[in-house]
Amino acid sequence: MAFQKIHESLVYAANSCADLSAKLNFLGKIDTDGDIILATAGSIGFPIIEGAVSGSPSTIQFGGIGKAIAGASFNAGVNLAADADGKVATAGSGVHVVG
After folding, report:
1. CA atoms of 97 and 91, how far apart (whole Å)
2. Which of 23, 32, 39, 70 is the most buried (most CB within 10 A)?
3. How far apart are CA 97 and CA 90, in angstroms?
4. pTM, entire model
5. Apex CA 13: angle with CA 7 and CA 14, to 5°?
6. How many CB atoms neighbour CB 14 within 10 A?
7. For residue 71, what are the contacts with CB-CB under 8 A and spacing of at least 6?
8. 63 falls in which pLDDT band (50, 70, 90)?
9. % of residues, the chain, pLDDT over 70
10. Smallest Cα–Cα separation from 98: which of 58, 70, 56?
11. What are 21-62's pLDDT values in tens digits?
């Protein structure tokens, strides 16, 4: 079984505002209430490393090297950003680059 070691100072845990239990390695973001939601197109997103149902704690990784689900194929060396489904895709102009 593969595992990933992440320094505890590079994670953020808070309540989920939606069901994120099946969203491992999707991109999440912090809303204005400090809760975790799925990242939207062009927003800053961080890998979800522990997903939970709405109202339960989820965890995102905001530093280091993380895993993310790709929403489309891309070439090495391109900038990546969150897409509308919380996956990574080639970054367009004027969006927050996550990788």
Report:
1. 6
2. 39
3. 9
4. 0.87
5. 170
6. 17
7. 83, 85, 87, 88, 89
8. confident
9. 92
10. 70
11. 999 999 999 999 999 999 999 888 999 999 999 999 999 998
Q: Is 8 helix (H, G, I), strand (E, B) or coil?
A: helix
Which tokens hold the place of 62?
């905001």
| Structure-token match 């505890």, residue found | 8
Could you give the CA distance from residue 81 to residue 79 in angstroms, rounded to a whole number?
A: 7
DSSP state of 9: G
CA–CA gap between residue 62 and residue 97 (Å, rounded) = 13
Contact, 24 vs 52, CB < 8 A?
no
64 touches 7 (CB < 8 A)? yes
| Range 2-5, long-range pairs (CB < 8 A, 24+ positions) | 4/49, 4/67
